[in-house]
Amino acid sequence: MKDSFPSILKMLTLMVGLLLSVTLLTAVLIGVIAMAFSRGSLPSLNQSQPSDMQTIAAVVVDTYKGVVPKEGIWQAPDWTTVDQEPNAEDITYGKELIANTAAYLGPNGKVKKISNGMNCQNCHLNAGTAPLGNNYGAVAATYPKVRARSGKSEDIPKRINDCFERSLNGKGLENNSKEMVAMVAYMQWMGKDVPKGESPNGSGIYEVPFMDRAADPIKGKVVYAQQCQSCHMEDGQGLPKSDKSGHTYPPLWGETSYNEGAGLYRMSRFAGYVKTNMPLGATFERPILTDEQSWDVAAYVNSLPRPKKELSKDWPDISKKPIDHPFGPYSDEFSEEQHKFGPFKPIKEARASSTK
């Protein structure tokens, strides 16, 4: 017991010393803070200085990476107002057909069996409501119109049937069918606020700037593996629904995908669509792929087999074929391969010089 007493005393002395040190340090800190407040060196809650959130918001605005300005972009009408329309039932059915085409008109369709199992909204995102998602914003305002592809005036039903015959690799609907009436009603309602003859900002598909090189399917395969195949699968056949009523994610090539006459078979159309909408989560405000990745993945997907389409009656005036139309003949001397994959700048420059 005698041997342990000095150790205990020493420990108590150290504890008292530590306690005094902490007390002294606390007093000094309180004094420093009090002096700072009295001199105004610390910000008051009432001072008009930007908050951290304001600073962050300013940085976000300064670093906006969207492909087009957000201001004035087309927006679909408020869906909650549909019931006010006299043909609300048709409009509602039309939207359902656009969103779930395969369930009604696909290989196992409950109305007809006239298409390949894809849905209209696989190409016209979110039932045709997404800005720069190949939406229907300009349809009512710009149809009927003369289309260079056919050389004839086309109305909305003709345009819809073009999609059934090309993108859905199937057969068209009768113009007076309940389904055609409904789809036309929906598209007209979507563009009800757009003045006749105008195409609003954000309608259609984004035009990705041309590269200085050709689009590369080999590089595109890498992009596909990294960004696309988790939904569309390695074999490109998408993810079928368990009830066989369609696909959760559509096929991008093969017998159940769009055929060679579809708009997305043009490289620029596919590249523009994926730039602002793919992979899942991308928008025109927050694109995920670079321009080059968009072109290359388009080249990869559109270099793979898909259904054929009789196109001999397309483009009666071949001088009006788009630069990236993948099939000849052409009114210039560039090869079919260059018209399909690029580089497109030389073709554009040659056309510009020929019109001077």
Structure description:
- This protein is mainly α.
- The chain has 2 domains: 79-190, Orthogonal Bundle (Cytochrome Bc1 Complex, Chain D, domain 2), CATH 1.10.760; 205-356, Cytochrome c-like domain (Cytochrome Bc1 Complex, Chain D, domain 2, Orthogonal Bundle).
- Helices cover 41% and strands 3% of the residues.
- It has helices at residues 5-39, 52-62, 88-99, 101-105, 125-128, 139-142, 156-165, 178-190, 217-227, 229-232, 267-277, 291-301, 336-341, 345-354, and strands at 145-147, 152-154, 239-240, 247-249.
- The strands form 2 sheets. Strands 1-2 form a two-stranded antiparallel sheet.
- A hairpin with a 6-residue loop joins strand 3 (239-240) and strand 4 (247-249).
- The longest helix is centred in the N-terminal third of the chain and has 35 residues, at 5-39.
- It is globular and about 50 Å long.
- The model is unreliable at 1-6 and 36-48 (pLDDT under 50).
